[in-house]
Design a protein that fits this description.
The protein contains two helices and four strands; from the N terminus they run βββαβα. It is an alpha+beta fold. The strands form two sheets. It has a two-stranded parallel sheet. It has a two-stranded antiparallel ribbon with strand order 2-3. A hairpin with a 6-residue loop joins strand 2 and strand 3. The longest helix is centred in the last third of the chain and has 19 residues.
Length: 65
């Protein structure tokens, strides 16, 4: 991470130690570096995640042509 970045965390994981949902980014470490970060849970929703996946699949198909 670099100072001033904006992080959109779309990962959803369960913290083994606490049993709580968390993202792929270590929120507590990142928040002092980046200018903005989406929380997990409560940030990016299911529709946004599906649109992102759709765009990644389309890009992958284009790269194979």
């Amino acid at each position: 991470l670099r100072k001033g970045q904006i992080v959109i965390d779309v990962g959803i994981n369960v913290d083994i130690e606490t049993g709580r949902l968390c993202g792929d980014v270590d929120f507590e470490s990142a928040k002092s570096i980046v200018s903005a970060i989406s929380p997990v849970p409560g940030g990016v929703g299911g529709v946004t995640s599906m649109v992102l996946i759709s765009h990644v699949i389309k890009a992958a198909k284009r790269s194979l042509q």
